[in-house]
Amino acid sequence: MPQTTKPTSRTRPDIADALAEAIFSGEHAPGEFLPREVDLCEAFEVSRSTVRSALQVLVAAGMITRISGQGSRVQPLDKWHLLDPRVSHWLARFAHPNPVIQREIFAFRVAVEPFVARLAAENATAVDLLAIETAWQGMIKALEHDDLRFEGKTHDEYDVEFHEAIFNASHNLVWAQISHVLKPAIALLVERSNQSADRLQDSMDRHRRVMEAIRLRQPAEAAQAALAVLERTGQDLGLEGLSRRLPHIETTFDSNNDISSHQQEG
Questions:
Q1: pLDDT in tens, 10-30
Q2: What pTM was computed for the model?
Q3: 58, 62, 63, 64 alpha-carbon torsion, rounded to 10°
Q4: How far apart are the first and last CA of the chain?
Q5: Res. 4 pLDDT band, cuts 50 70 90
């Protein structure tokens, strides 16, 4: 359990949050049991019913399971409801030290974002293009300031808005909704990868190529440019080369020739 100060009536911690932090950070790994209810009551100076309510929140999130006579055991990662807004919020707040979770988020983005960029190049409206360009311009303007802020927003916030705008430009309801739910998770990787001026400038060039391909209605180029952005992200996260090895939706639709060759092989 993370060490906490003695709770008072005004500073009582959110028990579910505290336990989620311990789980996301890897302090309580999948398969391990959380501290006993009586120990949690003592640690947080709360009643047993309060502890049980907090544990039930984690059960509903798929993060733990209650086993009669044994306690609360952390579930495998694939059982966690990562699309649950509260879990997604925990992910952004607490997953920094957990390389497994970071890799899974990165793998999802590699699988999906090139395909979504292709859809955006096919379906983006003038309003969508303006949103994408506004976010990109915000990133550029933020780089001109020492604190990496422009008009009240950070460079990272504009970066997240850029990717969210591309999901919206796909004009697919499911992809757009997924981008909203996963916004904290995407923000986690953005924050971790945007570290130095040289890397940021290279990243901006790659983002620009995505934007231009979408504006010029070049689906294949947009998909390839989106993958190039993720290659930069992978390098910054210590996952260099992984984006090329991970499966992604786009590989099935690289060109009409590829489709024809797959059909002939079949």
A1: 456 799 999 999 998 889 999
A2: 0.74
A3: 80
A4: 54
A5: very low
- Burial of 172 per CB tally in 10 Å (0-12, 13-18, 19+): middle
Distance (Å, whole) CA 243 – CA 6: 45
The domain total for the chain is 2
Q: Are residues 132 and 86 in the same domain?
A: no
The answer to whether 76 and 30 are in contact (CB under 8 A) is: yes
Q: Which residues of 205-235 are buried (b: 16+ CB within 10 A; e: fewer)?
A: ebbbbbbebbbeebbbbbbbbbbbbbbbbbb
Closest C-alpha to 43, from 8, 7, 73 = 7
Residue written as tokens 């292709």?
118
DSSP string covering the chain: ----PPP-TTT---HHHHHHHHHHTTSS-TTPBPPPHHHHHHHHT--HHHHHHHHHHHHHTTSEEEETTTEEEEPPGGGS-TTSHHHHHHHHHH-TT-HHHHHHHHHHHHHHHHHHHHHHHHH--HHHHHHHHHHHHHHHHHHTSTT-EETTEEHHHHHHHHHHHHHHHTT-HHHHHHHHHTHHHHHHHHHHH---HHHHHHHHHHHHHHHHHHHTT-HHHHHHHHHHHHHHHHHHTT-TTHHHHS--GGGGGS-HHHHHHHHHH-
Q: Are 254 and 148 in the same domain?
A: yes
Instruction: Output 242 or 148, whichever has higher pLDDT.
Output: 148
Q: What is the CATH number of the domain that holds 4?
A: 1.10.10.10
Domain residues for the domain of 171 are 99-265
Q: Which amino acid is at 180?
A: H
Q: What's the pLDDT score for residue 38?
A: 96
